[in-house]
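Same chain as my last thread, 388 residues:
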Amino acid sequence: MRILHTSDWHLGRSFHRVGLLDAQRAFLDHLVSTVREREVDAVLVAGDVFDRAVPPLAAVEVYDDVLHRLAELGVPAVMISGNHDSARRLGVGAGLMGRAGIHLRTDPAGCAEPVLLADAHGPVACYGLPYLEPALVRAEFGVERAGHPEVLGAAMDRVRADLAGRPDGTRAVVLAHAFVTGAAPSDSERDLTVGGVDSVPAAVFDGVHYAALGHLHGSQTISERVRYSGSPLAYSFSEAAHRKSMWLVDLDADGDVTAERIACPVPRPLTRLRGRIEDLLTDEAHEEAAGHWVEAVLTDPARPHEPMARLTARFPHLVSLVFAPDREPDDPLPSYAQRLRGRSDQQIAEDFVGHVRPGTTASDAERALIGDAFDAVRAEAARGEGAR
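reply #2:
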């Protein structure tokens, strides 16, 4: 059986306020073309179909369109809800959609009820485990501790029990949305630590032939049978080095796995530039970045004048600006907070003037004005205390 494993579409998400719906639509066109051209037998979507619980209408329309196209091809799809999705909303109409070959698995109670697929070698039981928030599903799975390892372990125990009752030779695939120990996260995934320890061991998926994982945005191979597809698009600059892809997985008659990465379209490369503003504006080595989405990390000791406007003139797709000034060699303090420690309000205010106005410190007149302002605030506070 040939399976296309994808996840973390995050339909409706933007990139630093730049809309990505056209890029997401192009990815789904690519997915449908891959299904047709590579003769895919089933599509697995391992959660985070949408970016938020109540997605914008345009994102829902894109989702609706790709479901119709897969149904027209006669290729079944199995989809689970992720931690960004509203399980209840995503699961609306699941029964009717299932008749068209679109199988939505959003109810934790149904994790041991597989979608039964088949090929020339026999049955394939495909189990969909939606994102399991420990505090919400603890009672359902009867675990004492509300942690991700406990609830996912209990769900997999149900899967293995169901599989044990099926005909010999039944191959098993599971979809899950979780953080597996040893995998590498990025900055654009929502933290799962609320509700207990966030990571689960890969051994929790023992007993199935393939685990199609979602949640982490980098494509990763935990083992030959446990993989993350990653997100089809980059959603943060921490993903600049990612090669966005899907897994094309073949299960043979014995359940052995071979997998091929299918690259996804790249709407625009990502580049992080670091240095002083004059260097970024003049260095010919940065010429290629003019067509990229750019994050500029400025290391100037003082904040430059109108940095966004000046940098955008060279890098029209600049979307993020970060200030990380170089420290003086005799400045051992690593943070601004530490530099404030032990200083008076007056001193902090005077330092701020120097921080936002490059190359100058507060003048005597400005110091006096700052002192008068603090005196007025203290006097007003004192009057308020007296009135009470």
